[in-house]
Amino acid sequence: LAGPFGAPAQKVWQFETIMAVGAGIGVTPFASILRSVQCRAKRHAAIESVRAAAAERRAARRRSPAKEGPTPSSPIAKSPAAQESIQELLDTSLKVPERIYFFWIVRNQGELDWFYDLLADAMQGPARDRVHISVFITGEIELSQVKELKCTQSQYFGRPNWARIFRQTRDAHLGDHVGVFLCGSPILGQELARQ
Asked: CB under 8 Å, gap of 24 or more: what pairs does 69-77 form?
């Protein structure tokens, strides 16, 4: 585990697994990162689709008898150097983390209501299954005011138990380089750093 980093957009792409912690309005940079993850996943899928289609066309040409005249070919699709370049593009510029855990800490339902649409929009896309969102409401709340949050997997009342969360993440991702990112108070940063 590395972090917590306070500037998530700068280092987030270096990790296979990400733990992002946002307190209150701290959801904003992480919603932006989640949108970027969705965009990268779309581009990644489009490139993989083109590569698969080119490979299928090559295989079909090998299976069918030779035809008269020139056949369309793509030197880029055939070139080993080009294939390596495409793979490098996918692995670096369009890298998508394998798993993202987002922990959003809010005081009340009002904060959730204020930013929920921003987070829900950021979850739309092909990488939504890579993201696990847990919401912690730390203030007093009437149970009748609690709303189901469709874009989240877990909703808790009270403060996060960081020792348990870090232990579970370590156990689930043994040997992985996990990045911890924070947009919240320095006190929360100190608490995360102790883990």
From this structure: 77/51
Omega of the bond leading into 4 within 30 degrees of 0 (cis): yes
Q: At residue 62, what is the residue type?
A: R
- Indicate left, alpha or beta for 154 from its phi (over 0: left) and psi (-120 to 50: alpha): beta
Helix (H) or strand (E) segment spanning residue 50: helix 27-63
Residue among 66, 97, 82 at smallest CA distance from 181: 97
Backbone conformation region of residue 59, classed left if phi is above 0, alpha if psi is from -120 to 50, else beta: alpha
For 84-140, write each residue's pLDDT tens digit: 666 666 666 667 788 999 999 998 878 877 877 877 777 778 888 888 989 998 988
Task: Give tens-digit pLDDT for 2-36.
Answer: 656 566 666 788 888 999 999 888 888 888 888 88
Q: Which run of H or of E encompasses 112?
A: helix 109-122
**How many whole angstroms separate alpha carbon 130 and alpha carbon 134?**
13
Q: What is the pTM of this model?
A: 0.76
